[in-house]
Write a structure and sequence with these properties.
35% of the residues lie in helices and 20% in strands. The chain is of the alpha+beta class. The chain has 2 domains: 17-97, no CATH class; 105-239, Nucleotidyltransferase, domain 5. Helix 2 packs antiparallel against helix 6 (119-131). This is IS1380 family transposase.
Length: 243
């Protein structure tokens, strides 16, 4: 006859996330985050920036699709000895605290397109990459650039040639690791002021002592001003010419 074992109520399907939370603090990522973004709350019960960002990452690492999914897995995540889990409302308010003013570019035809650079969060992204040892000052890296359409029905989303509403951020990655993000309206032409986006990204990478060996992009970067910008910041570049 089979024996039935009574298991502890502490068993959770998200137990693996506790190891990620432990590594988060072992690498002192909390100090990098709070040192960059500052003190969020002066009260004992208030949530600091490291707790907000740790909670966000835990949600997505546990298979969540949006911040509100913290409510679904909250009972399990709260068992972690490493972190305090805030509500989705607190996370949402915190995210808005670091919103950044859009910058607007007007095309020759009079259309206005909005870009959002958020330099503070892009700087934090690179600081975290460096702290985790993903990149090292003095290293020569290979950079990829592309625009990634993000479908959304948010109020400020615009209609894209992708036949959906959304945003169209430009993303710089190094060996698959995101190093810079710049959001843009979903209907923004890919070449429009791309040279400015790349200049800002290159400046950030260079400020952390990274040297760009190879730059790669698709035909959306095939333009004289973009090529001149790229050529001045890397050793070799590969840009696909339109067929």
């Amino acid at each position: 006859m089979a024996k039935v074992n009574i298991k502890s109520e502490k068993i959770t399907p998200f137990g693996g996330i506790y190891y990620a939370s432990k590594a988060f603090y072992a690498l002192s990522l909390d100090k990098v985050i709070n040192g960059t973004l500052g003190v969020r709350s002066s009260t004992y019960n208030g949530y600091q920036w490291d707790e907000i960002m740790s909670a966000m990452s835990d949600v997505f690492l546990c298979g969540g699709d949006c911040v509100e999914d913290v409510n679904r897995s909250e009972c399990h995540l709260r068992e972690s000895p490493e972190v305090r889990i805030s509500t989705s409302h607190t996370i949402g308010r915190a995210i808005k605290e670091h919103s950044h003013e859009d910058m607007e570019y007007k095309s020759s035809s009079g259309n206005v397109f909005r870009f959002n650079t958020n330099p503070r969060l892009n700087d934090l992204l690179m600081k975290l990459n460096m702290k985790m040892g993903l990149f090292k000052s003095g290293q020569t890296v290979n950079v990829d650039f592309d625009h990634v359409f993000v479908k959304t029905e948010k109020a400020d989303a615009t209609y894209s040639y992708k036949q959906a509403y959304g945003y169209f951020p430009g993303v710089v990655s190094i060996d698959g690791i995101i190093a810079y993000i710049e959001n843009r309206d979903g209907n923004t032409p890919v070449k429009f002021h791309q040279a400015d986006t790349l200049s800002r990204a290159f400046k950030l990478l260079h400020s952390y002592g990274l040297h760009i060996g190879i730059f790669r992009a698709d035909c959306g970067s095939y333009s004289e001003d973009i090529i001149r910008t790229v050529d001045g910041n890397c050793r070799i570049f590969y840009i696909h010419a339109p067929s």
